[in-house]
């Protein structure tokens, strides 16, 4: 377990803000993209992987939610437009997302590595990221694709409740809080994210199929894809992911010609 956790402020609020403490250098940092449909548990996995590996959790969705919670909606027209798309469950236009990521490109040099969560989400974003990484001399280690049947995705999303204060995530049945509507960690009020409402869930799943699923093929062709089953307990899935990544690293070191797609199921 790695205690190398900063508060991600440079990512969440933009380059004018500085993280509370710089990340400690890690001998072999992970530089990963996490893919998966809404509800698959990418955010939870990113947080666990960050704790285990010291890599910084870079979520574009968190940047938008941070803007909402700090009432930055009015700050720029682009952010205001982005939050409107987000509340309906639609993808934010590439140009807005790309500007946000480009402004935060220093985070890709984080000494602990990085876990991109929720970005890229379209082929255009994936192409732009590839150019950015190339131009900065950064190599991705792998792209983890979390897999789960659609019926389970819907049940995970519709039962999800988030703490308004500390952002801890609960589930009405799978991870129920001790007192209904109250966060176990900080006593904050639990609420249902606007984009976890039934109409928005349908829009998000459709957007994933149309725009993001093609990235699986894109990264498989690039020899970066590692598929991991997302069923089971979060810690179990995290261990499965780390095992898959370590094995890939071993294979690449021992047999560099064997760079291809791998699949890990329980
Ligand atoms: P997430 O927390 O990753 O599920 O993101 C929440 C919402 O933010 C998504 O449903 C989109 O509306 C928006 N969003 C986050 N990242 C992106 C992205 N890379 N491209 C387009 N929209 C995004």
Description:
With 266 residues, this protein is α/β, with parallel strands linked by helices. It has two domains: 9-147 and 197-265, Rossmann fold, CATH 3.40.50.300; 149-196, no CATH class. The protein is 43% helix and 14% strand. It has ten helices and nine strands. The chain has helices at residues 9-13, 42-53, 60-69, 77-88, 94-103, 123-135, 150-158, 198-212, 214-221, 234-254, and strands spanning 30-35, 56-59, 113-117, 142-147, 160-163, 169-171, 190-191, 225-229, 262-264. A six-stranded parallel sheet has the order 2-3-1-4-8-9, with helices on both faces. Helix 10 links the parallel strand 8 (225-229) and strand 9 (262-264). The chain is globular and about 50 Å long. The model has no long low-confidence stretch (mean pLDDT 89). Adenosine monophosphate (AMP) binds next to helix 3 and helix 4.
